[in-house]
Task: inverse folding
């Protein structure tokens, strides 16, 4: 009995060791953002100081610098502007397409669905070179419109894929009943299917928005001026003057940008994962 | 009533192909124009002399490929891309198997731990990478401070983590793993919940211990979900340039250059669109293999 208890105890110790080890490893950079963002420069840049604690009083100076002396707020605005437009375009394209595919029974529906999913696998790092020329031919270089145009190319495929699974779960009888009541098929889609799919559509909204904030390659390639940047590029590239890094403000920016995005994404995480694993989990 | 039901059925069967096409076509056209066309443009440029700021193109045959294959930067980029992808995938799979096993059962604080563990995946990677650049700073690195404090290095005697080829490579791999472990852990958690509880329980009654259950029952039952995690992880690592660009920009001496980062350095920063496009085309064979394997996984899951 004692042996069994010992075994149970050591299993539990191991369990917590694993959890603590990985949590510390994975969350450490975010702890580091907090510590750095509120430390005085003298404390930050004294090699002998214990870096894990505040050796001098915490300060809001880095945050003030970030908000008033850099273009950070402007970048946030740019990101929201692009994000909202891309969400709008994505919904406009993906919702009807996903419904068409979900209701298109037989081989073709399946094949087209998988084809759409595969386009999600084509990475920006393969397309950014030709797209940079397309963007400049259209006269959109260094404008946010270039991103509004290009971002739906990766948000639409995955959104179609997510919504397809969602629409398939809605019983066909619902639309049939609506059509008996005199609605057209499209009318049934707009008046019956969309209202009960709000949570699926919301998932796509959040997913699209977080993808826009996470994108780096296109924004780095198409946008050159400081005032037109998105947060994802502006913070790591433009908060650096020459070779001087303003680590306090940089980490403050990382922190206040990452945490809300992470929170949103986390709420909808299980649905995104369902999208990634469709087919492999039954 | 019978008449009414017949009518419903005929409507359901009608399927309205014109409407279906009209609803699907805009998205399909968008994808074709912004993924299909650029993809073929990339191939076209790779055989041309396209440069930024020069609008006319000439066909130059295999000239770009010839000069790329001769450049040492390209060779190290191919090698690094493979090394980074393989090394990080192996580490990620081992770690996320362990972590997902630890997270499988409910316990107090699981929600908080899950949120913290997921941060690297859900926060924008460019911001995570710049935080790592600060952690690995040449002078103020916290890792250096700890090592000096432990008397492993003398003050100012520690190596520059991003300044020496092997350490820089290890750092890039570390950051890729840091980002992907959460993703692959949640994928595996989804896979574990799909295993019927009775099977491991029955195995336990038959006397199988924790390790035997893990290696002989759970992991074999999770092969398809593990392959999903590996396939996505491979794509995310192999085609990524954000981590390398921010941490080292390919340096020191091309030691961390990867295919995507070299394509960017050549095609955009160096204005040589043609050569950049040719370099990025070397991603395609790997993508094709991944796509094929993914289809197989999906197919197998469907068949069973």
Result:
């Amino acid at each position: 009995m004692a042996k069994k208890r010992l075994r149970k105890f050591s299993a539990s110790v191991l369990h917590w060791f694993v959890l603590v080890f990985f949590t510390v490893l994975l969350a450490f950079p975010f702890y580091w953002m907090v510590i750095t963002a509120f430390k005085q420069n003298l404390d930050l840049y004294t090699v002998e100081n214990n870096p894990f604690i505040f050796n001098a009083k915490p300060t809001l100076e880095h945050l003030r610098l970030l908000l008033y002396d850099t273009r950070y707020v402007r970048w946030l605005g740019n990101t929201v502007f692009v994000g909202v437009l891309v969400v709008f375009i994505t919904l406009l394209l993906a919702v009807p397409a996903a419904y068409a595919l979900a209701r298109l029974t037989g081989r073709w529906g399946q094949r087209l669905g998988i084809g759409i999913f595969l386009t999600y696998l084509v990475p920006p790092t393969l397309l950014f070179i030709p797209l940079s020329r397309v963007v400049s031919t259209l006269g959109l270089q260094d404008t946010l419109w270039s991103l509004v145009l290009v971002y739906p190319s990766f948000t639409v495929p995955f959104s179609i894929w997510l919504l397809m699974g969602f629409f398939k779960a809605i019983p066909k009888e619902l639309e049939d009943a609506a059509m008996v009541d005199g609605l057209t098929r499209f009318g049934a889609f707009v008046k019956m299917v969309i209202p009960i799919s709000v949570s699926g559509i919301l998932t796509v909204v959040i997913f699209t928005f977080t993808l826009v904030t996470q994108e780096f390659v296109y924004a780095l390639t198409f946008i050159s001026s400081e005032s037109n940047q998105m947060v994802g590029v502006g913070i790591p590239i433009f908060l650096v003057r020459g070779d001087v890094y303003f680590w306090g403000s940089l980490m403050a920016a990382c922190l206040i940008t990452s945490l809300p995005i992470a929170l949103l994404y986390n709420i909808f995480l299980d649905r995104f994962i369902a999208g990634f694993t469709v087919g492999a989990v039954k | 009533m019978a008449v009414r039901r017949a009518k419903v059925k005929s409507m359901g069967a009608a399927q309205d192909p014109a409407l279906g096409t009209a609803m699907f076509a805009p998205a399909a056209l968008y994808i074709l124009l912004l993924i299909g066309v650029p993809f073929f443009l990339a191939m076209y440029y790779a055989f041309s002399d396209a440069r930024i700021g020069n609008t006319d193109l000439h066909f130059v045959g295999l000239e770009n490929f010839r000069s790329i294959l001769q450049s040492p930067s390209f060779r190290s980029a191919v090698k690094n891309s493979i090394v980074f992808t393989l090394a990080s995938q192996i580490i990620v799979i081992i770690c996320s198997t362990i972590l997902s096993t630890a997270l499988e059962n409910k316990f107090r604080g699981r929600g908080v731990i899950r949120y913290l563990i997921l941060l690297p995946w859900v926060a924008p990677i460019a911001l995570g990478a710049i935080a790592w650049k600060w952690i690995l700073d040449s002078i103020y690195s916290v890792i250096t401070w700890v090592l000096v404090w432990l008397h492993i290095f003398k003050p100012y005697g520690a190596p520059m983590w991003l300044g020496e080829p092997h350490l820089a490579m290890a750092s890039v791999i570390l950051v890729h793993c840091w980002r992907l472990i959460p993703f692959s852990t949640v994928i595996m958690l989804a896979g574990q919940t799909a295993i019927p509880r009775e099977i491991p329980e029955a195995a336990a009654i038959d006397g199988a211990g924790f390790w035997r259950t893990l290696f002989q029952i759970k992991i074999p039952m999770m092969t398809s979900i593990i392959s999903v995690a590996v396939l996505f992880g491979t794509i995310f690592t192999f085609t990524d340039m954000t981590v390398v660009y921010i941490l080292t920009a390919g340096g020191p001496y091309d030691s961390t250059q990867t295919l995507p980062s070299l394509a960017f350095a050549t095609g955009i920063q160096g204005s040589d669109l043609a050569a950049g496009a040719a370099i990025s085309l070397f991603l395609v064979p790997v993508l094709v293999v991944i796509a094929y394997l993914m289809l197989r996984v999906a197919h197998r899951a469907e068949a069973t």
